[in-house]
Amino acid sequence: MRISSSRYRVFLGGGLLLLLTVLPLQAQPVQDLLRARILLNEDWRFFRYPSRAEADGLVYDVWPTYRVDADTTGAPQEVIVLKPWVLPTGNPFIRDPSRRYRRPPGHPGSDFSFVQPDFDDSGWERVDLPHDWAIRGPFVEQPHPEVDGGMGWLPSPGVAWYRKKIFIPAADSGRAIYLDVEGAMAHAVVWLNGYLVGGWPYGYASWRVDLTPYVRWGAENQLAIRLEVLPRSSRWYPGGGLYRNVWLVKTHPVHVAQWGTFVRTPYVSTDSATVVLDVTIENRWARAVSVRVTTEIFELGEEDRPRGDAVAALPPRQVRVPAQGQAAVSGMATVRNPKLWGPPPTQTPHRYVAVTTLWLDGRPVDRYETRFGIRSLQFDPERGLLVNGERIEIKGVNQHHDLGPLGAAFNRRAAERQLELLREMGANAIRTAHNPPAPELLELTDRMGFLVLDEIFDVWEMRKTPLDFHLIFPDWHEQDLRAFIRRDRNHPSVILWSFGNEVGEQGSGREGAELARRLARIIKEEDPSRPVTASMNFARPGTPMAEVVDVICLNYQGEGIRDMPAYTGLQGITTPPLYSAFRIHFPTKMIISCENAAAVSSRGAYLFPVTDALSAPVREGQGGDPVTRQVSGYELYTADFGSSVDKVFFVQELHPFVAGGFVWSGWDYLGEPTPYYSSRSSYFGIIDLAGFKKDRFYLYQARWRPELPMVHILPHWNWPDRVGEITPVHVFTSGDEVELFLNGRSLGRKKKGPYQYRLRWDDVRYEPGALRAVAYKNGRKWAEAVVQTTGQPTALAAEADRVRIQADGYDLAFITVRVVDAEGRTVPTADNPVRFTVEGPGELVATANGDPTSFIPFSSAERPAFNGLVLAIVRARRGMPGTITVTASAPGLQPARVTIEAQ
């Protein structure tokens, strides 16, 4: 896209592409459904080899260090390389026909027992999807050649198989039958009835294989999927398995192609909006056909169904589709008085749905829904991001794909809970670090009104770990990128594409920039309506890489790296804040911070002394304890390359043209446990792995929700060994001044100065009792908070996030248990072991406490509290409504119970 003025202005709409299982516009018998999308998540059989040395030889490829690990014992095994049969799966996403792959003859692996319909898999484990084979642990012994702290010490590397029988009625014999996989980690290869169908190697991609040529009509069909996660293949926890939804899709031979619609709204006002829709039609027949295409637009109701009468219709189009080919048709309509999509609290995420019908010889043969939103975006170098004409500061966080104790297995309610807590903090944006998210996550961000920076790659050709994506990038980057854009481009929450994160090519001069330019060109071919970017932590204003992107996306260097006194002498690059330098060099480009802060802390852990610096790295005796591997919760300490929240706010206020940014990170995640790599999960999160708020949560909330009356005190006030010692007290508030009291005595009233985000009483001497903070705003009382010294633990107190859940086998209840004293106050240092039991039609899925050093498997029913808190995750059994009773007990403490109704 060419930028010809000082403002880069883009108008677009987008939404979820949905394949219909129910026709919402007119009553129609079930047997006449033209398109069916059937969830295949239940009742799979799963087997994982005990070691890589014992695995079969049906490999996607032979890697440079294949089998060079601790399991290399015994004689070498002959391998069959399946890549030539898998590569053609991506052909629909290779634009140049001459570069598409020709499938070799034959079906390698067809004689292998696991792919045979008559193989007895009754001894295999029964699992439901989404499934992560590694999250149950146990954590691997340290040290280990396949995984380390970066991958969370969980046993994700390995080879495994999934098998499932699917019945295809004889009545479907005229249909096209597809398998749609939303995510499989990794190097997936698919067989049906012993025939090799295809596959896809990138573990974060969504993809489709065509089952039609291999189907046994009117019979059961045996599906077999082989996956392999390579050792040392990730910088964070990747998980393993079929960890997102899997679907069986049935269509007429003439149908809307996979991700075959594209919505834009090139003109938007409060009076009217222009909606442009492209539709790509696929013809599986051996003869050309003439297809009539009609589309009506409806408001999308609360249950994600069309509501009321159509608000607009596109003019019908007639298009000729060649035999065994595709054709595209475009249309335009005007929506009067549109309800615009925008982020709360100042806007509302209204959505629409375009219902497209294909007609052949006067009969409907396909019906297809495209959900989208109507909104305008402007990327202004001076004002930042404008949504529907309103400046929206990007108050974003980075999110990895795992769901903590649930691992990589996607769960809609768990993701929704994450977003709810982030919204409570004031966040309005998500960056999908550093890979395509689950499609359901974007459904949630559409519905809830989050802005999304959608990212696809962490590496290109230059590796970061020995066996990461760089091995398949040359063969697959175009297919992955086009599929990613087509899948996500209709989502209104997606505002910006990122095609790389901190890639090594930043430093390879013009060669790296040319590769970046090729990737950007692919994105623009698939979606010319949104800008593109890549996250840069090394490229400087004068380097070629920065010239390629439409939006400047800086990781840490905007705020400055190792540029403050506390960081003097640390190894690594040192830069001053570079926002102004980038602005001078690129005056027409909007600037955002795609990663900032990288602050670290353990929830509820406070170490002394406390630095008086604005920001400081973690060192022994300075914010960190290498024995306990905990990091101080005073929220002033960072990774060596990072900055405290206070410093980030300060620098961004000095540069008001910056559009905002994305904190590293919103939640703790599995792996990458900086600064203690013998731990199992990160310290970066504003919210810990169990979903409990760290003190940093309130520092962000104070700035991001200035209208919310709040005040927060830290640390806790249980310090029996510190009587009379200096114990600093810090206060976060959305007010502008605070008076602090200790046991009724005023310790002074302090007012925030310019660029000040916390109020500090650094000379408080500890004495048991109560701290009380009274906040004021504009001279009037605003909020109040109290922290008290508690008694000894006497009981447990439990509360569920919801008391009613669905008995569908997916919905979850998150139960927080507090260790309390006789007066019901949480004991902030309690570590009592808590055991959970479940009665009724429910089951315990996982437990957690937010301790990054804990190696107790998440599936354990017993877990110690960590600084007073512990979590249980409970699921209702599928199809079994009733009352679920969850009991939490601990030796010597009064137990707690909660009841949940499964509906």
Topology (elements, then pairings):
Layout lengths: L7 E7 L2 E3 L16 E4 L4 E5 L9 E2 L20 E2 L1 H4 L38 E3 L30 E11 L7 E6 L6 E5 L2 E6 L6 E4 L8 E11 L16 E6 L2 E15 L3 E12 L5 E12 L5 E16 L3 E12 L15 E9 L2 E18 L3 E4 L2 E2 L2 E6 L12 H14 L3 E4 L6 H10 L2 E5 L17 H16 L5 E8 L7 H18 L5 E5 L7 H5 L3 E4 L23 H7 L5 E7 L18 E2 L1 E2 L2 E3 L4 E2 L5 E2 L6 H10 L5 E5 L30 H10 L6 E4 L14 E5 L3 E6 L2 E7 L7 E3 L8 E8 L2 E9 L6 E6 L3 E2 L6 E9 L12 E7 L2 E7 L13 E3 L4 E8 L5 E9 L2 E10 L1
Parallel strand pairs: 5-6, 24-25, 24-36, 25-26, 26-27, 27-28, 28-29, 29-30, 30-36, 31-35, 32-33, 45-52
Antiparallel strand pairs: 1-21, 2-21, 3-14, 4-7, 4-8, 8-13, 9-12, 9-14, 10-11, 10-13, 15-16, 16-19, 17-18, 17-20, 20-21, 21-22, 22-23, 33-34, 37-38, 38-41, 39-40, 39-42, 42-43, 44-46, 46-50, 47-49, 47-51, 48-50, 51-52
Please name the defining characteristics of this protein.
903 residues; mainly beta; 9 helices; 52 strands; globular
Spans of at least 5 consecutive residues whose pLDDT stays below 50 are 1-32, 66-75
User: Which percent band covers the strand fraction?
Assistant: 35-45%
Number of helices: 9
Number of extended strands: 52
Provide the residue-averaged pLDDT. 94
Give me the oligomer status: single chain
- Proportion of helical residues: 10-25%
Characterise this structure.
- This protein has 903 residues and is mostly beta strands.
- Helix content is 10%, strand content 37%.
- It has nine helices and 52 strands.
- The strands form twelve sheets. Strands 1, 2, 17, 18, 20, 21, 22 and 23 form an eight-stranded antiparallel sheet that branches.
- Helix 2 packs parallel to helix 3 and helix 4 packs parallel to helix 5.
- The N terminus is likely disordered.
